[in-house]
Amino acid sequence: MAEEEDMGAFQRAPLVFPGRSGGRSLWLVVLLAILGAALCFVVFATGRIAGTRAEYALRDRALAAFPLAADSLKGEIEKQRMIPLVLARDGAVQEMLRSPSTANEAALDEKLRAIARDAGSSILYIINPEGVAVAASNAGEPTSFVGSDYRFRHYFTEAIADGAAMQYALGTVSARPGLYLSSRVDGPEGPLGVVVVKMELDRVESRWLESGFVVFTTDERGVVLATSVPQWRFGALSPLSAKEKQTARDRLQLPGATFEPVPLSRRGDNLVTATPESRSAGFVAVSQDLGKAVPGWRMSLLIPADTEISSAVMTARVTTLLALVLVGFVAFIIVRRRRAARQRQEVLVLLNAELEHRVELRTAELQRSNEALAGEIAERENAVARVRRLRDELAQANRLSILGQITAGVAHEINQPVAAIRTYAENAARLLGIGRSQDTAENLTSIVAMTGRIGTITETLRSFSRRASGSMGPILADDAIDGALSLLSGRIRDSGVTIERKRIDPSPIVMASRMRLEQILVNLLQNALDALKDQPEPRVEIALAENGEMVAISLRDNGPGLAPDIRRSLFMPFVTNKEKGLGLGLVISQEIARELGGSLRHDDAGHGRGTSFTVELRRAA
Question: Which residues are the signal sequence here (predicted)?
Answer without folding.
Answer: none
